[in-house]
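Internal ticket - ligand job 165, zinc ion:
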Amino acid sequence: MKNCLFCGLLIEDNAKKCHHCLSFQKVGEKRGEKCDIANLIVHYIGIITVVFSILLGIFGFLGFKSFSDLQNRSEKVLERTNSKIDVFEKELVKLTADFSANNKALNGILISQLHDRYHNILDRIVIDNVETIGPLISELKHINKEAQKARTSGSDRVNHLIFNR
Ligand SMILES: [Zn+2]
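stdout (structure tokens):
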């Protein structure tokens, strides 16, 4: 037995190559390939695999976490926006309903006033008085027109109540 020229471990006396470090037993020969990076990787492949797995796991987890955080956040923003839109929509629907109700009421009041004026004029009309009958009839015609306008833009139900009382 002799010692390897390179790694110093025991090898056969007639060995031309060390089976530990794979170096040829000749002076001036380069040390064997066993200690290069490839061999290190092969030697430590288990540890490297474990470390890589852990790193991949950590980065994967962090990546997933930040991704799901982002997703959660955008979902929350979307939810808030949607709920805001919902609120706006409800407000708009309410405003529209209020407005049309007010509009109907306004039309109703207008028609009611026109109706009262019409009746007042009718009560004042004396067929014999030629001086006053002309302007009163033209005012009645005017009221009729206004009532027609109010009636077409107002609620049929309200108008029905006013005109059929
Ligand atoms: Zn050796």
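Auto-summary: The chain has a mean pLDDT of 76. The first helix runs from residue 37 to 43.
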